[in-house]
TrEMBL record:
Higher taxonomy: Eukaryota, Viridiplantae, Streptophyta, Embryophyta, Tracheophyta
GO molecular function, one term: protein serine/threonine kinase activity
Name used for this protein in its record: Receptor kinase-like protein Xa21
Pfam families cross-referenced by the UniProt entry: LRR_1, LRR_8, PK_Tyr_Ser-Thr
Keywords on record: ATP-binding, Cell membrane, Glycoprotein, Kinase, Leucine-rich repeat, Membrane, Nucleotide-binding, Phosphoprotein, Receptor, Repeat, Serine/threonine-protein kinase, Signal, Transferase, Transmembrane, Transmembrane helix
Length: 918
């Protein structure tokens, strides 16, 4: 050990404390990063005089930095970030004259930054961000000419920046000082930092004007100086915008929440590489410049909470890359340009709190990536366009409240399967609440108050199991308050000022008087004292006798009809039994249940099984796209079994048996079954399913693995929604009566996505029933032994001969969940020598999870820090599903609860800023 020079035990499962190092050791490289180590850094590490690298980041280390570390003269890298270290930064670190990386971020260091660090003349990288440091930034640090990355953000630093800041700081590329308490002006000498590509001074107290000298920084691509007190009162003080034309790589310009005044300079449109523009929270006025049409690379425009006025320029509709438009809380008016339908990449459209008028353009339905739509507090008129309900991507908010909309709520509202919050309140909407609203499967908040709605609360609302907040106040809704409102998990309910009658339920949300409002319903009664309703009067004996008489008559009539129906059914059943004695029970049931199709029907519908219609293949068959007539002509998917493949017929029987016994909105829907012979007299078996236009989850997670696939990616909210859909399907299967169903082959290629991006679990060819001892032989076919599933998704116990169980599906689901958020297949070549996808994720969880996140997620517009809670909850859930021991895995009920909570966090963060502005 004394001769050991290189020790790297990074990214393992090491826990406990770091043992003392041997005296006079020869170590030069010492790395234990990304483990679960606790305790303190060994004090005798200072005896290893040859140490060049100490890397202990991303652990749970405690204590302080020993001043004696300053005696390790050979040290070039000191990385202790992402631990729980505290105390001060020792001044003796200034003796490490060979140091070029000092990495201490995400700890609890306090006190001042030692001026002695200015002696480190080879220092290239200093990261002490996200600590509790205070005092002024030592001027000596700005004399280090080798500095490249300078990050002191998220501390309590104060004072001003020296006027000569960049005289020696000429190699610095990233200057990050956000979220401190810095004051004074931005030095004009910043132009001497000619290599700068990133400036982030946001969330400080900088004053004065923005120096035009910033425009000489030709490599600048990120300029974030929002949330300060910077000024621009005259056109001359806006000259810095003209100077920025020289910054030909500038992609992000954030000037929001300062004290900028006047109109937006038209020269801003000359920043041709700009992707993000933020001007919110200033005193700017006048119109939105029509010259913005030149900014063809713009992805985000945020100019909310200003004094903008006038119409939205039609030229905005030409910005084909625009994904986020937030111009809420201004004085804008006029109509939404009709060409807004051309903004097909739009994700967030926020136009609220203005004076827009006219009708809502149906062309907005072309925004098929839209996740948030808020046009509330305007003057829109007319009916809600039915086309809006075809925006299947709406996942967070649809807010049309506080307008002058009339007509009924479109029944097509049920197509918004993924939306979390709907606000249609304070309009002039009439008619009844459509029963189709239960199609909004992930709805959490529904506000319909302040309209002219009438009729009862539809019973279909009972299907909205995730509904938390329901406001129907100030309408003309009548009837009894349904009992199911006490059963679906509501936390807030407002039904005040309607025409409800009868007894109020006692359980659930009704037990909490502060969570409900039932005022203004004079015919309501109840037994909960805190609600202050009159007690209910029981029915008289005479009326009860009359009611019983009517019920007896109705039962007699119904019984007679039932007897006649049974006689007819038994006769038909007898005829079918004689005709189909040799057909297996499961197939026979399917044939009788669905509209029959022949081999010729399928042959014609697939154009003779042409390659053009081939859309997939698997172990036991191939899948074709076809057009067939089932009540209406529709596109379908036909799975043709390869009966020459061993196990194909058993797979066919398993799928028939499972699908005839299961029906759920997140399971693939079967339309028909064909058991016939082909043109050559061979047995032919096929299943006809509804067609899923968005293909399998596999093609979305791994598009590069499929020929002729367009590059595409799933957003964070889409992934969470799909995860919930799959979990709900498995919960249904595992709780299925009379026998639970085990899927046994859950993987991305067996999850299909419809036009709404709602997930449907399919391919039940390996499905098992948890059979009872007296199960008939015909059903024992679904309980065969052997390894069940696909490599990478098979739980460990199956490989050791274990029986199929719900916990096995839970393991496969956990693998799938991790794959969805890392885009790493469990069969990736990196997973060998005992390393698996769950272990790989667990090693990075939680501190380094962002490093292994799917790159398509980490590069989205969302502020990933804001969504970290959601991501960590989802991944924690995935890891709990992937436990080695089946008994330690959580059940699907708990999975759904956890994912719904994670989704709620995601929705809350997504609309947090917007809610604040309101």
């Amino acid at each position: 050990m004394m001769r050991l020079q290189f020790l790297n035990l990074s990214v393992n499962y090491l826990d406990g404390t770091i043992p003392p190092l041997p005296g006079n050791c020869s170590l030069e490289y010492f790395s234990l990063r990304t483990n679960n180590l606790k305790g303190v850094v060994p004090s005798n590490i200072v005896q290893c005089k040859n140490l060049r690298v100490i890397n202990l980041n991303h652990n749970f280390l405690l204590g302080s930095i020993s001043p004696e570390l300053g005696f390790l003269q050979q040290l070039t890298i000191l990385s202790l970030s992402a631990n729980n270290l505290n105390g001060t930064i020792p001044a003796t670190l200034g003796n490490l004259t060979n140091l070029y990386i000092l990495d201490l971020y995400q700890n609890h260091f306090s006190g001042v930054i030692p001026a002695s660090l200015g002696q480190l003349q080879f220092l290239q990288w200093i990261q002490v961000n996200d600590n509790l440091l205070s005092g002024k930034i030592p001027h000596s640090l700005f004399n280090i000419s080798t500095m490249i990355r300078f990050d002191l953000s998220i501390n309590h630093l104060e004072g001003s920046l020296p006027h000569s800041m960049c005289d020696a700081f000429q190699q610095v590329e990233k200057l990050v000082l956000y979220e401190n308490q810095l004051r004074g002006q931005i030095p004009t000498s910043i132009s001497n930092c000619s290599m700068l590509d990133t400036i982030d001074f946001s969330l400080n107290g900088f004053t004065g004007t923005i120096p035009s000298s910033i425009g000489t920084l030709q490599k600048l691509y990120f300029l974030q100086i929002g949330k300060n007190q910077l000024e621009a009162k005259t056109p001359r003080e806006w000259n810095f915008v003209d100077a920025l034309i020289n910054c030909t790589f500038l992609q992000l310009l954030d000037l929001g929440y300062n004290q900028l005044q006047g109109i937006i300079p038209r020269s801003l449109a000359n920043l041709s590489s700009l992707e993000t523009l933020r001007l919110s929270g200033n005193l700017i006025s006048g119109p939105i410049p029509s010259e913005f049409e030149k900014l063809m690379n713009l992805i985000q425009i945020e100019i909310k909470q200003t004094l903008l006025e006038g119409n939205i320029p039609v030229e905005i509709g030409y910005l084909q890359n625009l994904q986020n438009l937030d111009i809420s809380n201004n004085k804008l008016f006029g109509k939404i340009p009709s060409n807004f339908g051309n903004l097909t990449r739009m994700s967030r459209l926020l136009l609220s709190d203005n004076a827009f008028e006219g009708r809502i353009p149906p062309s907005l339905s072309n925004m098929q990536f839209l996740e948030v739509m808020d046009i509330s507090n305007n003057k829109f008129i007319g009916e809600i366009p039915k086309d809006i309900m075809n925006i299947h991507s709406l996942s967070y908010v649809l807010n049309l409240s506080h307008n002058y909309l009339n007509g009924s709520i479109p029944s097509e509202i049920g197509k918004l399967k993924n939306v979390a919050q709907i606000y249609l309140s304070y309009n002039n909407l009439s008619g009844q609440i459509p029963s189709s609203v239960d199609g909004c499967q992930l709805l959490q908040i529904l506000h319909l108050e302040g309209n002219l709605l009438q009729g009862p609360i539809p019973s279909s609302l009972s299907n909205l199991k995730g509904l938390q907040e329901l406001d129907l106040s100030s309408n003309n809704i009548s009837g009894q308050v349904p009992l199911f409102l006490s059963e679906i998990g509501l936390t807030h309910l407002n039904i005040s000022f309607n025409n409800f009658q009868g007894e109020l339920p006692k359980e659930g949300v009704f037990k909490n008087a502060t969570a409900i409002d039932v005022r203004g319903n004079p015919e309501l009664c109840g037994e909960v004292p805190e609600i202050h309703l009159p007690k209910c009067i029981s029915s008289s004996p005479a009326s009860e006798h009359h009611s019983r008489s009517i019920k007896i008559i109705l039962y007699c009539i119904a019984g007679g009809i039932l007897c006649i129906s049974l006689t007819i059914c038994l006769f038909i059943s007898y005829l079918w039994k004689r005709k189909s004695e040799r057909i297996p029970h499961a197939i026979m049931t399917m044939i009788s249940k669905y509209e029959r199709v022949s081999y010729n029907d399928i042959f014609r519908a697939t154009s003779g099984f042409s390659l053009e219609n081939l859309i997939g293949s698997g172990t036991f068959g191939v899948v074709y796209k076809a057009v067939m007539s089932f009540r209406t002509v529709q596109t379908v998917a036909v799975k043709v079994l390869n009966l020459n493949q061993h196990g194909a017929f058993k797979s066919f029987l398993s799928e028939c048996e499972a699908l005839r016994n299961a029906r759920h909105r997140n399971l693939i829907k079967i339309l028909s079954v064909c058991s016939s012979i082909d043109h050559h007299g061979n047995d032919f078996k096929a299943l006809v399913f509804e067609f899923m236009p968005n293909g399998s989850l596999e093609t979305w997670l791994h598009p590069n693995s499929y020929m002729n696939q367009l590059a595409r990616c799933l957003s964070l909210i889409q992934r969470v929604n799909i995860a919930i859909n799959i979990a709900m399907a498995l919960e249904y299967l595992h709780d299925h009566k009379p026998m639970p169903i085990i899927h046994c082959d859950l993987k991305p290629s067996n999850v299909l996505l419809d036009e709404n991006m709602t997930a449907h679990v399919g391919d039940f060819g390996l499905a098992r029933f948890l059979v009872q001892p007296d199960t008939t032989p015909a059903r024992s076919i679904t309980n065969t032994h052997g390894i069940k599933g696909s490599i990478g998704y098979i739980p460990p116990e199956y490989g050791m001969g274990g029986q199929a169980s719900p916990q096995g599906d839970v393991y496969s689901y956990g693998i799938l969940l991790l794959e969805m958020f890392t885009a790493l297949s469990p069969t990736d070549e990196r997973f060998r020598d005992g390393l698996s996808l769950p272990k790989y994720v667990e090693m990075a969880f939680p501190d380094q999870f962002m490093d292994i996140l799917d790159i398509n997620l980490s590069s989205t517009d969302h502020a990933i820090e804001d969504f970290l809670d959601c991501l960590l909850s989802v991944i924690r859930c995935g890891l709990l599903c992937c436990r080695e021991l089946a008994k330690e895995r959580i059940g699907m009920n708990d999975v759904i609860k956890e994912l719904n909570l994670a989704r709620a966090k995601l929705v809350r963060y997504q609309i947090f800023e917007h809610d604040l502005s309101k």
